[in-house]
Write a structure and sequence with these properties.
Blueprint (H helix, E strand, L loop, with lengths): L2 E7 L5 E6 L3 H10 L13 E8 L2 H12 L3 H8 L6 H9 L6
Antiparallel strand pairs: 1-2, 1-3
């Protein structure tokens, strides 16, 4: 069973992270039709901007939770597949910024 973790860009510019066992195109269609109440229903249309596929649902759930905990800059780096920037963006979040 394949499970897809995905990120959508909503019409208001925000991001939604989710996972699905169905084909990603079908899930995207459901989001854009507003079939389910939830975050994306009032933020349509949505655009698929990132996917990763996993063989184990436990791995997909862990990845979805990880991404949901990230700040916007880190999600944007992931969407650009800029994996080298991810550690720096993570460390910035934990360290206080110097005062000017």
């Amino acid at each position: 069973m394949e499970v897809t973790v995905y990120i959508l860009r909503c019409s208001d510019g925000s991001f939604y992270t989710g996972l699905t066992k169905q084909e990603i195109e079908a899930r995207l269609w459901e989001h854009n039709q507003g079939i389910y109440d939830g975050y994306t229903k009032k933020r349509r249309p949505v655009e698929l901007v990132f996917t990763e596929t996993y063989d184990r649902i436990t791995d997909a759930i862990a990845r979805e939770r990880q991404i949901k905990g990230w700040n916007r800059a880190k999600k944007e780096a992931l969407i650009r597949y800029d994996y080298e920037a991810l550690p720096e963006l993570a460390s910035r979040r934990r360290r206080p910024q110097p005062s000017s």
